[in-house]
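Throughout this chapter, every protein is written as a compact record of paired, labelled lines. An example of such a record is reproduced below:
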Amino acid sequence: MAQGNKTVATGEAVEDMLSRIEPPERQADARVLAALMARLSGEPATMWGPAIVGFGRYHYRYDSGREGDSLRIGFASRKAELVLYLAGLDDADMTALGKHRRGKGCLYVKRLRDIDMAALERLIIKSLAHMDEAYPR
């Protein structure tokens, strides 16, 4: 069997990780994201590696033979910003969001107060729909 994903679900309690986030504003934002993603996904929060909070899981298998499990959606609190792991989004989806930047499969936000939360909710819903289509349960 081919090697799987390096970032795997762990047994760490999400609350333990959330309680260590600094500064307090970032911790509050992380808690808001955790509640929002749990509500929209219908899945409990699970730690993936030491710092990623994920919701749901899927199994992937590439033509190369590599396979593994990963989170359907999630986020991490990094030193400079929050990183949201969302898939299936394009530039047009981002117009109403507000202050952010994008990477491959990632959305970077410094503070939730800088973005439109209704727009973020729509992005999360679209990402979940994309994952359901690409990786049916």
In short: The mean pLDDT is 93.
